[in-house]
TrEMBL record:
Its main location: membrane. GO terms for molecular function: transmembrane transporter activity. Keywords: Membrane, Transmembrane, Transmembrane helix. It is found in: Membrane. The keyword Metal-binding does not apply. GO terms for cellular component: membrane. This is Transmembrane protein 184C. The chain crosses the membrane at residues 12-35, 47-66, 179-197, 209-230. The lineage of its organism: Eukaryota, Metazoa, Chordata, Craniata, Vertebrata. The gene is TMEM184C. It is a multi-pass membrane protein. Pfam families: Solute_trans_a (PF03619).
Length: 257
């Protein structure tokens, strides 16, 4: 059978393997030449080691994405999974570029941080799609459950009504971070251009401190809503083991940071 766009599932994986090998043949000599040209210090060694990990992680992620595309049997679940898998190459490339050129780190980090918010949105979409497909009467199932009280530190707050109210507020609590994060990232970029950002300096005279506090509050509330959502629907979500998947997502964030 000839290689055409219609039967792309047949030849796409060999093509990706070939392109990866070509990239290795081209990039490794360039890296060695860069090491010889520059004085080999700690920064250069770190950049070279990061490049090795980049060449390892990107093809693994691409292969996982390709496997989903080739075996595209559950689009409503595989779409958010593919979006989440794109997080690894984006974060890897961002970290490598920022390590090589620290002066432009704030600009490439803007794209990375916006994608982090998009990943959390996709993860919530993955859980919602799974529950909707498997339990069409999910609201009725929630209404039949015992009343769920708030977790610490919101124990004193009135409990959300079981059913559609709790489902909506948990989703809204998670998705608010997907709006807050890109918004604060754009503000950070503007502050950097104006010279008032001062990243890493805990002082109330710069913008970075306020943005870090605002981002952390938003993220912690999103995590709280996600944990509450899981606690209420633990039995229904157990087949897809969402805790391990979400921990993997957060590990990508922390390790690359």
């Amino acid at each position: 059978m000839p290689c055409t766009w219609r039967n792309w599932r047949r030849w796409i994986r060999p093509l990706v393997v070939f392109l990866y090998l070509v990239a290795l043949v081209v990039s490794l000599p360039l890296c060695v030449w860069e090491l010889q040209k520059l004085e080999v210090g700690i920064h250069t060694k770190a950049w070279f080691i990061a490049g090795i990990f980049l060449l390892m992680t990107v093809p693994i992620s691409f292969w996982g994405i390709l496997q989903h595309l080739v075996h595209y049997t559950q689009p409503e679940l595989q779409k958010p999974i593919i979006r989440i898998l794109w997080m690894v190459p984006i974060y890897s490339l961002d970290s490598w570029i920022a390590l090589k050129y620290p002066t432009i780190a704030i600009y490439v980090d803007t794209c990375r941080e916006c994608y982090e918010a998009y990943v959390i949105y996709s993860f919530m979409g993955f859980l919602s799609n799974y529950l909707t497909n498997r339990y069409p009467n999910l609201v009725l199932i929630l209404e039949a459950k015992d009343q769920q009280k708030h977790l610490p530190p919101f124990c004193c707050c009135p409990a959300w009504a079981m059913g559609e109210v709790l489902l909506f507020r948990c989703k809204l609590g998670v998705l608010q971070y997907t709006v807050v994060r890109p918004f604060t990232t754009i503000i950070a970029l503007i502050c950097e251009l104006l010279g008032v950002y001062d990243e890493g300096n805990f002082s109330f005279k710069n913008a970075w401190t306020y943005l870090v506090i605002f981002n952390n509050v938003s993220q912690l509330f999103a995590m709280y809503c996600l944990v509450l959502f899981y606690k209420v629907l633990r039995e229904e979500l157990n087949p897809i083991q969402p805790v391990g998947k979400f921990l993997c997502v957060k590990m990508v964030v922390f390790v690359s940071f």
